[in-house]
Design goal:
Blueprint: E1 3-8, H1 12-24, E2 28-34, H2 38-48, E3 52-54, H3 57-62, E4 68-71, H4 78-87, E5 91-95, H5 102-115, E6 119-122, H6 129-139, E7 146-156, H7 174-190, E8 196-203, E9 211-219, E10 225-231, E11 233-244, E12 247-251, E13 263-269, E14 272-278, H8 283-297, H9 305-324, E15 328-329
Parallel strand pairs: 1-2, 1-4, 2-3, 4-5, 5-6, 7-10
Antiparallel strand pairs: 7-11, 8-9, 8-15, 9-10, 11-12, 12-13, 13-14
Helix pairs in contact: 1-8, 4-5, 5-9, 7-9
Length: 334
């Protein structure tokens, strides 16, 4: 058995990364794609060899052949269409950030429970085996106790004024778009939730007031912190450093990896610096297979929808801190 996927939107992330990943997965096939313009849907279907094209999202959700949908719509539409998909009995993989805030995400979680379907946030990098390898090296004591994590994810698209990332009401801004990566990575590596956030941001009037650059600190237990910066108006960077008492781990391409090339990270300690090679894998295919096994075999998702709620609580605190210029405590769990 395979999962038949429907794609809601012809967004580039779907066409260039997620759809090819699903096609290379062991459990899935891309059956249909929808756009609000039928010609656009047909063009994408022809380009990507997808059997069915729909001129509306509603038509796709009515198709009984479709088991699961992938949603790469602008952020403010995630909740609406994820809920409609789940109410139609479809499993959902929703692009990050899964919603505009933790409250919306909680609503989506409750809907998934009610409908008895799988809901997951599309953080593809977490499925890459290098992070399991990194965790194993940390647990083996190769860098001692973790003292801090530093993550950066920046790029420059400031000239593209019509970009959906530059609409404040649509959930635009660098924290939503790329800040979520180091935030989720620190939570994953430390396996705990931060207690407070302090963030400073550059809000640009040229870009509808969204944060085009943000720098912050998340406070974890025992004095450990994530320091991070993210931006859409800066030179490209995509790195993560895990600092320990006896060494450190450097991940040069922490979130976006070079397609069709082997990957690596570095461990530095008293024995010197070791380059750890990781064979090439398609992290989008691995993400699709994790959902596929959950749907077909009932296997637990590595990262549940509850994790998405917790991640959005942190993002809520970061946005509030940046807007109000203050430290914001993060209380409780989902």
């Amino acid at each position: 058995m395979t999962i038949k996927w429907g794609i809601i939107s012809t967004a580039n992330i779907g066409k260039k990364a997620v759809i090819p990943g699903i096609k290379q997965s062991e459990t899935g096939e891309v059956y249909a794609i929808a756009s609000r313009n039928l010609d656009n849907a047909k063009e994408a279907a022809n380009e990507l060899d997808i059997p069915v094209a729909y001129g509306s999202y509603e038509e796709l959700l009515k198709d009984p052949e479709i088991d699961a949908v992938y949603i790469p719509l602008p952020n403010h539409l995630h909740k609406e269409w994820a809920i409609k998909a789940m109410q139609a009995g479809k499993h959902v993989l929703c692009e990050k950030p899964i919603a505009l805030n933790a409250e919306e995400t909680q609503e989506m979680l409750e809907e998934s429970k009610k409908a008895g379907v799988v809901l997951a946030e599309a953080f593809m990098y977490r499925y890459h085996p290098r992070y399991q390898m990194i965790q194993e090296r940390i647990q083996a004591g190769e860098i001692g106790d973790i003292r801090g994590i530093h993550g950066v994810f920046t790029f420059n698209s400031a000239g593209a004024k019509e970009n959906v990332r530059f609409h404040k009401d649509w959930g635009g801004g660098s924290l939503y778009d790329v800040g979520v990566y180091p935030i989720s990575a620190a939570r994953m590596i430390l396996n705990e939730e931060p207690q407070a956030a302090t963030v400073h941001a550059l809000f640009s009037e040229q870009h509808d007031g969204v944060d085009m650059m943000a720098s912050g600190i998340l406070e974890f237990e025992q004095g450990v912190a994530l320091t991070f910066d993210c931006g859409m108006w800066a030179d490209f960077r995509n790195r993560l450093e895990i600092l320990g008492t006896e060494g450190r781990i450097d991940v040069p391409s922490a979130f976006v990896v070079n397609q069709n090339e082997s990957d690596h990270f570095f461990i530095s300690n008293g024995k010197g610096t070791e380059e750890v090679k990781v064979p090439y894998v398609d992290q989008y295919a691995l993400q699709a297979d994790a959902l596929g096994r959950s749907i077909l075999e009932g296997e637990a998702l590595p990262f549940s929808a509850n994790d998405a709620v917790l991640n959005m609580k942190v993002l809520d605190a970061c946005l509030t801190s940046a807007e109000e210029r203050k430290r914001v405590e993060i209380k409780g769990e989902a």
